[in-house]
Amino acid sequence: MSKSLPRGLKTILRKGGHNYSSIINNWSTLVGKNIANVCYPKSIKTGKELRNGVLFLNVSHGDQVLVEYSKKDILDKVNAFFGYQFVKDIQM
């Protein structure tokens, strides 16, 4: 099965691409419509153990304050979705 996957896709999946894909697919239900309308996940950086990652968000101009005040809530919701501390910080 691994031979049939493209080379680039295998490395993304190994580096937690499945978790990143899950965040993107469930973004509006995770953070709510108000926050989902002003920002979306741009990328994520994690270690090999897929813990304590950094989630990078793309935020609409003028809505940085709303997202900044909601960081803790976003972290709690994303980590509750995975069941462990997958993300430890959010950067914009």
Description of the molecule:
- The chain is 48% helix and 21% strand.
- The chain has 92 residues and is α+β, with helices and mostly antiparallel strands.
- It is globular and about 35 Å long.
What are the defining features of this structure?
92 residues; alpha+beta; 3-stranded mixed β-sheet; 3 strands
Count of discrete alpha- or pi-helical segments spanning 4 or more residues: 6
How much of the polypeptide forms β-strand, as a percent range? 15-25%
Largest sheet features: 3 strands, mixed
Helix content: 40-55%
Structural class: alpha+beta
Average pLDDT across residues?
Answer: 82
**Total number of strands:** 3
Write the layout of secondary structure elements.
Elements: H1 7-14, H2 17-25, H3 27-31, H4 33-36, E1 39-45, E2 53-59, H5 64-69, H6 71-82, E3 87-91
Parallel strand pairs: 2-3
Antiparallel strand pairs: 1-2
Summarize the structure.
The chain is built from six helices and three strands, in the order H-H-H-H-E-E-H-H-E.
